[in-house]
Amino acid sequence: MKIHRTKMGCLNKSFQQQRTALADKTSENQSRAQNHSAKEILAEDQDEEIRQLINAKRQKINFPAATAVEQWEDLDSKIVLKLDSLIGDSKLEHKLATFGDIVYQTSLETFGAKQYQSKGPPKRSRRQCEMDKLREQKRNLKKQMKAANSEEKKGLQEIWQHLKARHSALSGA
Question: Can you say how many angstroms the Cα of residue 46 is from the centroid of all Cα atoms in its chain?
């Protein structure tokens, strides 16, 4: 931008002046009266229930599919009845504070919580299973080579080299 200003003659005199203020000083007048920090950051005692609800981890609800219109309409009518009976003509703040809890509780009662199945150990891939088989075959061949005579050792050695090459190819993949 500075190169453009100098080439095109767009440089204003205000941009040419160097700042004279010290780096560690500000030009603002900071007084204690302008401090806008909160005086009391602790919540009131009456908000204890709300804090407990926020801190508590809620269970996930087992909602039906979006195409199950009858179930959703049934839930809607239950929520409306509960809202009318519990909230009624209360203040807006109270309505906002309790609305979410009422919807959650009604949904949980209607549909229930999700049930999670515990996962077993991770399954081994085809490559890992094949590598295990090759390892076992190589181990058995080593035992056979120790007990074999010199003619058989050459044939077993070739088979072992083939298994070794296959194992290294799989482990490199």
Answer: 33
- Residue-wise pLDDT for 82-136, tens only, equals 888 887 777 888 888 888 888 999 999 999 888 888 888 889 899 999 999 999 9
CB 133 within 8 A of CB 87: no
| Mean predicted lDDT score pLDDT of the chain | 79
Q: Cα 83 to chain center, whole Å?
A: 33
Annotate 8-75 with DSSP letters as a single string. Answer: HT---HHHHSPP-S-TT--SS---GGG----S--SPPGGGHHHHHHHHSPPPPB----TT-HHHHHHH
Q: Which residues pair with 113 in a beta bridge?
A: 61
Residue type, 160: W
